[in-house]
């Protein structure tokens, strides 16, 4: 874990090299109360096996620092890793939450996977946050920004001088995340980014992914000022039309994430695996021929 000190708050960052994902623990220095954001449940697609290596590292950190976990948070249903939110909530007693637009994502993917019994009311989480809603992490004030574009349900958590933007932005030399999944929209992504850019320039932007561009170490943190000056897709001076053209051209060249069709059917359930069938084994579905021709 790498720690970043803020005024009255500590942010600990854990990078999962297998999926390129960053996971965060935000703690109030006064009360030792914490929120966990976007934890990863390990999944080996070759073996069809899950594990809790990443989540257990987070638990080790929580114990070492003497933290009380108040929240275990998702920013959106992820397409590149399984969510460890229910596992960590069960271990810590923290309340789970996500943005309330998750119901639209559940409905969309319930139909794609043909899951007629899936509840699409967000009841898999303890709380559904609305745009602008405020909450607390100990004595820390936090609020939610609806940040659609990558998905219908993407949100940004802002606590103090830190914004957890996940797949809305990447670090400046890597630009932004894709907007071509079902429900994604590059125009909406532009508007979400501009809203983040209106935060104070010193606000730290903690991203959800980095893949070590050109061999550098993986990075998870920059600032609003850094993003506005240096982001290769969306720095100041690039207008909406130029951004959308760049984003859509790039998206058209990208393959689906390796774990997308496995991960989303878990993550629209709040990170819970499918129930076992009559033979005692749980199975994942693959929607055949739903997402274009086979890779060459």
Roughly how many Å is the radius of gyration? Answer: 18 Å
User: Helices and strands, in N-to-C order?
Assistant: EEEEEEHEEHEHEEEEEHEEHHH
Task: Estimate the global geometry from the Cα principal axes.
Answer: globular
Report how far apart the termini are: 39 Å
Largest sheet: 7 strands, mixed
Strand content: 25-35%
Number of distinct helices: 7
Question: Count of DSSP E strands?
Answer: 16
Mean pLDDT: 95
What class would the helix/strand composition place it in?
Answer: alpha+beta
Low-confidence stretches: none
Helical content class: 10-25%
Largest sheet strand order? 1-2-3-4-7-9-10
In short:
The chain is an alpha+beta fold and 296 residues long. Helices cover 25% and strands 26% of the residues.
What would your notes on this structure say?
The chain is α+β, with helices and mostly antiparallel strands and 296 residues long. 25% of the residues lie in helices and 26% in strands. The strands form 3 sheets. The chain has a 7-stranded mixed β-sheet, with helices on one face. Strands 11-12-13-14-15-16 form a 6-stranded mixed β-sheet. A 3-stranded antiparallel β-sheet has the order 6-5-8. The longest helix has 13 residues, at 53-65. The mean pLDDT is 95.
């Amino acid at each position: 874990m790498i720690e970043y000190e803020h005024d009255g708050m500590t942010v600990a960052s854990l990078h999962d090299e297998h999926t390129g994902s960053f996971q965060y623990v935000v703690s109030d220095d006064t009360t030792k109360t914490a929120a966990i954001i976007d934890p990863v449940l390990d999944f080996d697609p070759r073996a069809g096996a899950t594990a809790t290596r990443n989540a257990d590292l987070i638990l080790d950190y929580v114990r070492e620092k003497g933290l009380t976990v108040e929240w275990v948070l998702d920013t959106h249903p992820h397409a590149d890793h399984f969510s460890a939110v229910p596992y960590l909530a069960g271990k810590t007693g923290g309340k789970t939450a996500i943005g309330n637009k998750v119901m639209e994502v559940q409905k969309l993917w319930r139909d794609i996977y043909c899951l007629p019994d899936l509840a699409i009311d967000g009841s898999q989480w303890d709380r559904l946050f609305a745009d602008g809603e405020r909450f607390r992490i100990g004595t820390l004030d936090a609020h939610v920004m609806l940040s659609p574009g990558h998905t219908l349900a993407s949100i940004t958590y802002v606590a103090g001088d830190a914004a957890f933007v996940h797949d809305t932005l990447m670090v400046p030399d890597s630009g932004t995340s894709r907007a071509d999944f079902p429900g994604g929209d590059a125009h909406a992504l532009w508007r979400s980014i501009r809203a983040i850019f209106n935060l104070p320039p010193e606000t730290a932007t903690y991203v959800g992914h980095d893949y070590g561009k050109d061999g550098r170490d993986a990075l998870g943190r920059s600032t609003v000022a850094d993003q506005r000056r240096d982001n290769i897709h969306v720095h100041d001076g690039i207008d909406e039309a130029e951004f959308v053209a760049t984003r859509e051209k790039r998206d058209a060249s990208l393959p689906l994430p390796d774990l997308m069709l496995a991960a989303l059917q878990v993550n629209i359930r709040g990170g819970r695996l499918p129930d076992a069938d009559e033979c005692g084994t749980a199975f994942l579905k693959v929607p055949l021929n739903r997402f274009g021709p086979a890779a060459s």
